[in-house]
Design brief:
Strand content: 5-15%
Number of helices: 5
Mean pLDDT: 81
Radius of gyration: 19 Å
Shape: globular
Order of helices and strands: HHHEEEEHEEH
Strand order of the largest sheet: 1-2
Largest sheet: 2 strands, antiparallel
Low-confidence stretches: 179-183
Length: 186
């Protein structure tokens, strides 16, 4: 059965942040890669499924601010979230120096969320099992006695990893992410 996308901002039935037409327009400007070529050759239903899956994965992130409405299906729009890198210094107007920040509107989906969804959808379209990893694929050795973990490489590892460019798009609007380490006392 074909999937229908609903990109209504704040909608109770929304299941994507971006329409297929807008996603295709964004992808047209990207450098041609194997993933992008696979996207071009996919059916609209497969593309819709990839966009739906990408939105679901992105919504598992913990974002700054609060959801605008309890009835909205997706995590965005949100209120109280500053736009990264839009601080205005007012050094000459007041003391102490103040920063004025620009906030996302309560009816706005940030372009960085839309772009992250598209990039992740393109990746998932060509890597169908990209979100079904067990989390152990990234480790050369895992031991229990005296806890010995040897990663195959350094960087994002585990079941919840996403392509690094998606991670970069979400920086500044979510809680956590790269370079944050969660330590829990046992």
């Amino acid at each position: 059965m074909a999937i229908t996308l609903d990109a209504t901002v704040g909608g109770a039935n929304a299941n994507t942040y971006i329409t297929l037409d807008d996603a295709n327009s964004f992808i047209e400007g990207l450098v041609l890669s194997d993933d992008n070529a696979a996207w071009d050759g996919s059916s609209n239903d497969n593309k819709n499924r990839a966009l739906f899956t990408a939105a679901q994965r992105i919504d598992r992130e913990k974002f700054l601010g609060a959801r605008v409405d309890d009835t909205q299906a997706l995590e965005w729009p949100r209120s109280g979230v500053r736009k990264p890198d839009t601080y205005t210094n007012l050094y000459g107007l007041s003391f102490p120096n103040r920063l004025v920040a620009d906030y996302y509107l309560d009816t706005e989906i940030p372009d960085r969320v839309k772009h992250a969804q598209v990039i992740l959808a393109v990746y998932l379209n060509n890597n169908r099992n990209g979100l079904e990893l067990s989390g152990l694929e990234d480790f050369a050795a895992v031991s229990i006695g005296n806890i010995n973990v040897t990663p195959r490489f350094y960087g994002a590892t585990g079941i919840d990893r996403i392509p690094p460019i998606v991670d970069h798009y979400l920086m500044g609007i979510r809680i956590g992410g790269r370079a944050n380490l969660s330590i829990k006392r046992s």
